[in-house]
Amino acid sequence: MKTAPTSQFMDGKHLAKNVQCPACHAALPPTAAPETKTCLSCHKGSYTAMAEVTAKVNPNPHTSHEGEIPCVDCHKGHQPFVYGCGKAGCHTEYSNTRFK
Questions:
Q1: Structural domains counted in the chain
Q2: The whole model's pTM is what?
Q3: Could you give the CA distance from residue 42 to residue 29 in angstroms, rounded to a whole number?
Q4: pLDDT per residue over 64-88, tens digit each?
């Protein structure tokens, strides 16, 4: 993506840490969002481990009552972060400015 090096979103954060596009995308140009197993291969290895990292967040997004939600439901990569549960209107009051 041409704007990734200057992006304020997750793609720019990855490139700033020298994580190149093929680390997340199997095909270039990308034909689909990365699978959760791809994300977890770098980020703590499991939902249980991610839940420990975000244990003080209320509600903890990694212990969803909906089960293991795909990472890309919230972490959009090339777009602003959104809570996946917010789609149903349940948790729209919560936001995370980390990737905005």
A1: 1
A2: 0.75
A3: 21
A4: 888 888 999 888 888 887 776 655 5
